[in-house]
Amino acid sequence: MSLAVDVYVPRAEGGIEVLDVPPGCSDAAGRERWRTEVWGSGPVRSLGARFLPRLATEDLAVAPHEVAALIAECDLIRTDLARIAEHMRAEPETGTEPGAGAETGPGTGPGKSLSPHADDVSRCLDNIVDAARRALAVGGGIIIW
After folding, report:
1. 47 — alpha (psi -120 to 50), left (phi > 0) or beta?
2. Per the domain annotation, does 13 fall within a domain?
3. Residues 41, 87: contact at Cβ < 8 Å?
4. Tell me: the pLDDT tens digits for 54-110?
């Protein structure tokens, strides 16, 4: 299972409308276990991140007025990719999802060097920032679930 980042807009009559991901864009925000192993990890928390660490315990909803702060948080996390990648490399290779076994693709674990881990996080941050910019353009918010 994977985390997805989506843009939503509040409806005038109440509730929200989740917008489709435009062609050429990705909604990938990491593997499900990244909730704790990356976004909720010590290295991310130590940077003072306040949005993404919430994924460790719940889905993340960022209100329209907080989207710019989410972009700033992504930029902040990007400044310490090497330490985050080192933390990821130290994590065990077996998954925490039911029925998961050894990693066969991108994810955490000691089998990868630092650079691929950093690249994986950077790509997901790019996707989150891209969605956040789309949200800003329409007065919407972000959901990561």
Report:
1. alpha
2. yes
3. yes
4. 999 999 999 999 999 999 999 999 999 999 999 998 877 544 443 333 333 444 555
Q: Across the strands, what pairs with 109?
A: none
CB atoms within 10 A of CB 80: 18
Nearest one of 116, 102, 128, 124 to 34, comparing CA atoms: 124
Token readout for 81 is 């990719």
Q: Is residue 103 in a domain? A: no
Domain that holds residue 116: 2-21+29-92+108-144
pTM, two decimal places: 0.86
Yes or no: say if 105 and 111 are a contact pair by the CB < 8 Å rule: no
127 lies in some domain:
yes
138 vs 66: CA distance, rounded Å: 14
* Average pLDDT taken over every residue of the chain: 89
Residue 14 pLDDT: 93
Total of domains in the chain: 1
Residue 112 within a domain: yes
